[in-house]
Every structure is written in structure tokens, then in C-alpha cells.
Amino acid sequence: MFDALLLTQEDKRTFAQVSQITEADLPEGEVLVEVAYSSLNYKDGLAVTGAGKIIRQFPMVPGIDFAGVVCESTDARYQVGDQVILTGWGVGENHWGGMAQKARVKADWLVPMPQGCDAAKAMMIGTAGLTAMLCVQALQQAGITPQSGDILVTGASGGVGSVAVTLLANAGYRVVACSGRVEQNAPLLRELGAAEVIDRSELEQDAKPLEAQRWAGVVDTVGNKILAKALAQMQYGGAAAICGLAGGFALPTTVMPFILRGVSLLGIDSVSCPFEKRKAAWEAVIKALPAHFYQQACQQISLAEVPDFANQIIQGQVTGRVLVKL
């Protein structure tokens, strides 16, 4: 028997409880992993609280990320004792996830632990860090350099945003961090490297088709009006890497930024990202993140504390990354 956070549903209400399960309860897969750490993402928060329609079948073990050690494998790519990471692939949504002391998954979903990393560090980075790295790489591939101008990061105090701020600042970009709780979050965001912190209210008003040029690049985790406003303020030839919808999935914009300023909209997906691209991004983010990130932008909780923190994360009251120790 081992511990797992089990989600059940009754009368359309979701209940989360730490329960004892066995290996026989786990779904099918080629690799059984002893989980050392998971993490709490915004999507996990929606799943655990039932605030979003994330879970497709109950009961469910949430946790879209985990890192640990292989304890059984029928796939030649992974041997007993190998350290591995899993992010994405619908795990924690339609396949039991990482908020349990053991997980059984498909070998195709795993990535070997990069050199210089361990399970705790991997989950301090997690889906959020992988996504942030893919965003930064996309901007760089689009030709956005530190000399191009300011980079806006929306939802900067969240998991993806805080890693993006750190990565961009460490690479020499001037980062403007947008947050809903400036007084509370500005000190940490500046420590992570933000040159300027602005309140999200500056970007929440309806956007004109085009506004004064302000941003060379954008990493957006929010969507909706904030992304529309940012697009209207893009510099000529700028690029926006978009990866989230914390503010809603709508995009009330026009074609003007794209056809009159040559702006590029770069969609970033880390859930089904191919293995080679995923592996390269993991290796890159391990090398790029400075040591101070792990001390400043991460906090650790127990499995029993997850429901409480899930409520906080969907209310925008959590800053940085939340590590779940199994």
C-alpha cells in the first residue's frame, strides 16, 4: 500500500483525499516509477478543486508532472534505477498522475533525467519551466535578441511566468513583468531579474487595433484581453509566444498587428511536445536557470497540503513554483 491523492466526484462536486492504494490499482503502462516529487500547476489546481473541467474520468490521481526512479520496466529504453521525468501527455487528466508515491505510465511519455539535475530540481522546473523554455527558444528562433527591446511576461508571478522572467533576464533581455499583485510580487520578480513590474490593470482595457509600439517580444500565459492589448503594442517585427489561458481562451484582437507590423504569434505546446525537442528543452533549461531561482521561486508542500494550495493557486494567491514531496 502507498499514498495517493485520489479525486472523486459526487453530484458534480470534486473531492480530494489522501488515500491508500496498491500497484494493482494503477493503470496500464510499460514503466512503474517510484515518485519522489510532483508539483502543483494551475491546471492541477483546476483539477483538484473541480473549478475546471480537467478530469475526464473518476477516480483520478492528479499531478501533470512527476520525477522519480524506475522500479519496473518492460521497455528496453528504461532500466530499474533510472531517474526519469514526466510532464504532459494527459497524465493527471485522463491517466493517473504524479500525486502518488508510485505511477505506472507509457515509456514514450518519459524523459531521462538530464545531467546536473535531480528529482527535486526537475519538479521545481516542471511543466511550467519546460513551457517557459520553449517560449524563450521560440522568441530566439524568431530573431528576438536582447537588443530588440523590452520583453513582456504576463502572469509573471505564476509558474511559467516566474521561470520565463528568470530565463530571459539571465540571457540578457530587459524584462517587464506583468502581475495582478504588484505590491506582493514585485520584490521577488525583481530578484528573479525583472527590470520593471507593471500591474495587469494596465493591459486589461479593451485594445485599439494598434497602439504605441512597446514590446519586442511577449511571453503570454493569460490570453484574452491582456494578450490582445499586448499584440496591439508590439513593435514592428515582434513576436509573441503564447502558452496559457488563465484569463480566458478568447482573443479579442484584429489582423492589424500581423499585417501592418509583421508581428508573429507563436503557439507553444508542452503537453504533446515530441521527445527530441522536449529532451533538448530540458537540457537547455537546466543549463540556463541560475542557482538562485531554486531558492527564491520555489516552495515545498506535502501531499496532504495539496487541496489547500490548489484553492490558493486558482485564486492567484501562489507565487512561483510549488513542489509536492511524495
Automatic annotation (TrEMBL):
Recorded GO terms, molecular function?
acryloyl-CoA reductase (NADPH) activity
Question: Which InterPro entries does this entry report, sorted A to Z?
Answer: Acrylyl-CoA_reductase_AcuI, ADH-like_C, ADH-like_N, ER, GroES-like_sf, NAD(P)-bd_dom_sf, Zn-ADH-like_protein
Q: Which domain of life is it from?
A: Bacteria
Where does the sequence pass through the membrane?
A: none
| Domain Enoyl reductase (ER) span(s) in chain numbering | 13-324
The protein depicted here goes by the name Alcohol dehydrogenase, zinc-binding domain protein
Q: Which organism is it from?
A: Shewanella baltica (strain OS155 / ATCC BAA-1091)
